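Example record

One chain of 171 residues, shown exactly as stored in the release files.
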Amino acid sequence: LRQNSLLDHTLMGLAMTGIALPAFVSAPILALFFGLYLKLLPVAGWNGGALPNSAWSATGNWASGAAPGNGSVQSLAFGGSINPNPANDVANLTAVELTFAPDAGSFTLSGNALILGGDIANNSVNEQTLDLPLTLASGYWFFKAVAGDLKAVNVISGTGSPVKSGPHLLT
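Predicted structure tokens for this chain:
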């Protein structure tokens, strides 16, 4: 590369942006880009549209119209306040990201165990309850209580290590 060329400045700008942006800002943007626009990663956003059915396998509960399948790897997002007690009836589901949107009501996630291969973030002012067993894949996984509290009331197991971040409570 030639120093001070347009390519040099462009690559340096991208690198600095990647370093300066916190993960809770860049992760949703990258999930949108790679999941919705490029269709390279599965992204599932809960809208609770299959009311009264609260099963995760009900396609009408997901904005994409596609429910997570057994053994799948998904980025899961919960928002709104319709059908706030989703029950995971999917086996061997891995969440690479579990996010509660700023507009999310108080959710209580229950049902089958969820394998966590990424962070959990509560961007809502409402408390979010995780009443399903969580199996942490190896690594450090952040429970980000960004705008509201997170409550884990079931077993957390696995080889990973939970790390609490954010100004709100993790109980």
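Notes: The chain has a mean pLDDT of 88.
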